[in-house]
Design goal:
The protein is α/β, with parallel strands linked by helices and 234 residues long. It is 41% helix and 15% strand. InterPro entries: NAD(P)-bd_dom_sf, Sc_DH/Rdtase_CS, SDR_fam.
């Protein structure tokens, strides 16, 4: 049986690069995004008959009911989950005292609850198998606050705390847990910014870091992957 990687928000940026990396390495993929058209384009471009399967589902990961439906699709495959990447996130800049009403709720629901509910839905099978690796796409903003970070930073600090707690809980169950703390990566989130592309990290570099971390023996876990652009934060 082929290994299975579940990657939320897999049509763009870090998610897309990670989908490609694991699929080309022999994994079946289950991924989601809000846009059905983007998902179908990903499947058409990537899936090859002599390789594995790319399962897709149009999903709004900020909604608990959608997350649970996505998890049921994963479980219906009857394949053990080898890798789970909680990759869904949204960034809305703003200061705590000035940002729009509802910013905190929107980013907590998207950045934190998506990972919380999807992990809870899938972790039972990983515990039973005494196997699996859970990654969360955090941020430098989850360990170091900055001006105009506001509720985004709050949500990422909470996500980092969630990952730390999960790591402690999963130690006796053979499930590895890793927090991905990445600085500015060239993705759609930075569209329109007047900075050269080479000022950012590459999404493929982040995907490589995830893949190589998972490739280590079960006796070893990288608890945190901290990556920054060579010239520093943006």
């Amino acid at each position: 049986m082929r290994k299975l990687a579940v990657i939320s928000s897999g049509t763009k940026g870090i998610g897309r690069a990670t989908v490609e990396k694991f699929y080309m390495a022999g994994f079946d993929i289950v991924t989601c995004a809000r846009s059905q058209a983007d998902l179908e384009a990903l499947k058409l471009e990537l899936e090859k008959p002599d390789l594995g399967t790319v399962h897709i589902s149009a999903t709004d990961m900020s909604k608990k009911s959608d997350v649970e439906r996505f998890a049921e699709i994963v479980k219906s495959l009857n394949q053990p989950v080898d890798v789970l990447l909680n990759n869904t996130g949204i960034f809305i800049p703003g200061a705590v005292h000035e940002e729009a009403e509802g910013s905190l709720e929107q980013m907590i629901e998207t950045n934190l609850y998506s990972a919380y509910y999807l992990t809870r839905a899938l972790i039972g099978g990983m515990k039973s198998a005494q196997n699996g690796h859970i990654f969360t796409t955090g941020s430098i903003a989850g360990i170091q606050s900055y001006a105009n970070g506001g509720s985004y930073s709050i949500s990422k600090f909470a996500l980092h705390g969630f990952t730390k707690a999960l790591r402690e809980e999963m130690k006796p169950h053979g499930v590895r847990v890793t927090s991905l703390l990445a600085g500015a990566t060239y993705t759609a989130s930075w569209e329109g910014v007047e900075l050269p592309e080479d000022r950012f990290m590459k999404a493929s570099d982040i995907a490589d870091a995830i893949f190589n971390t998972n490739a280590l023996s079960k006796q070893t876990v990288v608890e945190e992957i901290l990556l920054r652009p060579q010239l520093g934060d943006i």
